Amino acid sequence: MKIDFDGLQAFVCVAEFSSFVKAAEQLHLTQTALTRRIQKLEGLLDARLLDRTTRKVELTATGRDFLPQARHLVLDATRTLARVRDKAQASGGHFTLACVPSLTTHVLPELIRTYAQQSPGNTLRLLDASSHDVRAAVLDGQAELGIAINGEPHAELQEVALFEDPLTLLCPTPHALQDRRTVSWTDLQSVDLIVVSSFMATRMFLDYQLGQRGIRLSGHYEVQHHATAINLVAAGVGCAILPSSTFENGDRPHVVKIPLTGPVVKRRVTLLRRKQPSLSLAAENFHQLTLTHFGKRRR
Predict the structure, then answer these.
(1) What is the reported pLDDT for 299?
(2) pLDDT means over runs of 10, the chain (299 residues)
(3) What 8-state DSSP symbol labels residue 250?
């Protein structure tokens, strides 16, 4: 049987006030609309609940028996809806974010920390994956939002550029280059280099940009993850070419970050979401926070 909440609410209100006029005012309805709700409920129950005369409204025997149950149903439904609404407004619920691992060192933790302060009741599931997989996760609906490296435009994706992330040299100390204010790409020809896999977005972007300028670098060591490259640099194995956002001077002893020039090569970090459907409140809050953090206008 279909539950007619409007009819139950109308019946309880009329019974409480013993008046169609007062009940209609309370529910912000016309008396005609209120009468229709009562009639619909009586039709659904196949029972008369109210006797109405020109002077008064009285409950039938069936109405008197049904009133306590109807009152309980209305009160329980009202409280349940209020709890859902309050939780949605206060905490926003849960959402999944996909992000490239290179941004989980400094950029993402700062965003999550601020988000947690603004929405303390929310929960967030993080998928750390390659830039290609981040885009796939957003497209497939596994994640509502994604933070990745700029890629090919997709008709179903909305992509907002957040910031330009220059590639830098991580150098162990002591090292011949450690005191340089900048290092050029040609300075790296004789350096033991640690590079990320050619399948990673950062490496593909680097090879393309340098190839356009006739510069070719080969690494002595190839790794899958930026964190592994940093560990090898800290151990004195060699120097690594990594996005600036992955490391701050002071993060690790005996490792310094030096800007790379001639040319400066930057990757573009973007915020992804599907154009449809709309975001959950939790994801919308994080989306707006991220845009505000990087000084972007909401789209």
Answers:
(1) 46
(2) 84 91 91 92 92 84 92 86 65 84 93 92 90 92 93 91 94 94 89 79 73 76 90 95 93 95 91 92 93 75
(3) T
Distance CA 133, CA 264 (A): 27
* Residue corresponding to tokens 């109807």: 70
The DSSP output letter for 105 is T
Report how far residue 129's alpha carbon sits from residue 149's, in angstroms, rounded to the nearest whole number.
11
- What pLDDT score does 197 carry? 77
Per-residue confidence (pLDDT) for residue 262, from 0 to 100: 85
Q: Which residues pair with 268 in a beta bridge?
A: 164
Asked if residues 7 and 41 have their Cβ atoms less than 8 Å apart, the reply is: yes
Give the contacts of 5 (CB within 8 A, at least 6 positions apart): 74, 77
Q: What is residue 80's predicted lDDT score, i.e. its pLDDT?
A: 83
Which residues does 219 contact at the CB level (< 8 Å), separation at least 6?
193, 194, 195
The owner of tokens 């100390």 is 173
137 torsion bin: left (phi>0), alpha (psi -120 to 50), beta (else): alpha
* Domain covering 163-267 assigned CATH 3.40.190.290 in the classification: yes
CB 165 within 8 A of CB 130: no
- Level-2 CATH architecture, domain 5-90: Orthogonal Bundle (1.10)
Predicted TM-score (pTM) of the model is 0.67
CATH number of 94-162+272-293: 3.40.190.10
Q: Cα(15)–Cα(9) distance, rounded to whole angstroms?
A: 10
SS3 187: helix
Tokens of 81: 């809806």
Burial 26-51 (b: 16+ CB within 10 A, else e): bbebeeeebbebbeebbeebeeebbe
Query: Could you tell me where the DSSP H helices lie in the chain?
Result: 5-17, 20-27, 31-45, 61-90, 107-118, 131-140, 201-212, 226-234, 281-293
